Amino acid sequence: MRVARRITDLPPYVFAETGKKLEELKGQGVDVINLGIGSPDLPPPWAVIDALYQSALQPSNHGYAGYYGLPALRRAIADYYQRRFDVHLDPDKEVAVLIGSKEGLFNVSLAFVDPGEVALIPDPCYPTYGLGTLMAGGVRYSLPLREEEDFLPVLDAIPADVADAAKILWLNYPNNPTSAVADLEFLSRAVNLASRHDLLLCYDNPYCDLTFDGYRPPSILQIAGAKKVALEFNSLSKTYNMAGWRVGMAVGSAEAVEALARVKTNIDSGIFRPIQDAAIAALTGEQTWLTERNLAYQRRRDAVLEFLPGLGLTARVPKAAMYVWARIPEDAGQNSQDFCMRTLEKTGIWLTPGSSFGDHGEGYVRIALTLPEEQLREVGRRLGRGHQ
Ligand SMILES: Cc1ncc(COP(=O)(O)O)c(C=O)c1O
User: Fold this and answer.
1) Is the pLDDT of residue 16 over 70?
2) 103 CA distance to ligand 1 centroid (A)?
């Protein structure tokens, strides 16, 4: 049998591969501390779990739940955008319900990119933007994210002919992996660029409610005219600790929502009804617990920043997202993959090599804040005891 060329060209999903390697090491008795993966370790509120249970008790809730998401869920999403960002959305035309945002981030390339067409993609970035482009037969034009530019792409540096030829501009703030944030002024310039060059601006915003020190990230849809050019992706995974449940959304341009739905209705058959009922409970329920939850992440961030010198790393203090993006010392004489392997061997601590997110991630590692504070403090003690 011969697999398709698009598969032979496809690198293995980096987190799936390292997951296997770490399990092997654990099997050999190594006490692995995995700071590599961005999966929330805390549960959603009890009311969300209860809504799932109550809905699953209904015999009529086990069939196909419809292609477009329950009207009540689309309404809850629109209400959330109104409340959180003062952005008005038409739940019937400007909201698509996704099986986790990763699904939509992938499928949108099938809806907008033809073979040989260009997508403007930040480097480093969440890998799905590039993989969707690749699977659609498209071509990536990289937008480097550099520390000296606050990990924002230099929009003016994109040649006009490239911007004219491109179909999609990808942006993600608060950013994975760098944790950088973008202000309304930058978002406004991005909307302007997309308008001038007839681009779909895909804005990935799953960390908008996972923030520190009182910071409140904006939505791209707050920018005047954004709805004509932008599709914002969001997710219940990080905001509500529901990563395994697989519920996300794409909101904004009605034309883009319709195109994405056309792809999706031919590929999937919607989300299990009890999960949608639980998502409604998450979006419409008590939100005050998020403050405490974010404080827990903030304490983890501070614990990580404290032990960085023990690993020879330096980092900016993140305002949002669940990562510390740390620089490897220049005199380390090794790339990020080697640095992470050596750290794993010496300390049992696994960090994600920055190069997993693109060439411009080289020289950095990503540390996820997905372990309890006490465990992170223990990492500090381990390093303090001279394991580095
Ligand atoms: C930037 C970014 N976008 C999207 C996702 C995918 O989230 P979801 O669970 O909604 O598929 C992640 C997950 O880590 C992410 O970091």
Assistant:
1) no
2) 9
131 Cα: distance to centroid of ligand 1 (angstroms): 14
Closest CA to 220 of 170, 279, 271, 269: 170
Q: Which residues of 175-210 are buried (b: 16+ CB within 10 A; e: fewer)?
A: bbbbbbbbeeebbbebbebbeebebbbbbbbbbbbb
Pocket around ligand 1: residues whose beta carbon is below 6 Å from it?
38, 100-102, 105, 126, 172, 176, 204, 206, 235, 237, 243, 248
Task: Give the chain's mean pLDDT.
Answer: 94
**Antiparallel, parallel or unpaired: β 314-315 and 323-327:** antiparallel
Residue 19, pLDDT > 50, answer yes
Residue 388 has what pLDDT?
47
Please state, in angstroms and rounded to a whole number, the distance separating the CA atoms of residues 323 and 304.
10
Burial class (CB in 10 A: 0-12, 13-18, 19+), 383: buried
**What distance in Å separates the CA atoms of residue 207 and residue 301, rounded to the nearest whole number?**
15
Long-range contacts from 274-277, C-beta under 8 angstroms, 24+ separation: 274/51, 274/52, 274/53, 274/55, 274/56, 274/61, 275/52, 275/245, 275/246, 275/247, 276/65, 276/69, 276/70, 276/73, 276/97, 276/247, 277/51, 277/52, 277/54, 277/55, 277/61, 277/70
Whose Cα sits closest to atom 16 in ligand 1? Answer: 176
Instruction: State whether residue 252 is helix, strand or coil.
Output: strand
Token pair in block for residue 286: 């008590």
pLDDT(386) > 70? no
Which residue has its alpha carbon closest to ligand 1 atom 6?
102
Tell me, in angstroms, the distance from the centre of ligand 1 to residue 205's CA. 9
Q: How far is the CA of 206 from the centre of ligand 1 (A)?
A: 6
The protein residue with its alpha carbon nearest to ligand 1, atom 14, reads 38
Q: Which of 194, 210, 201, 39 is nearest to 129 (CA)?
A: 201
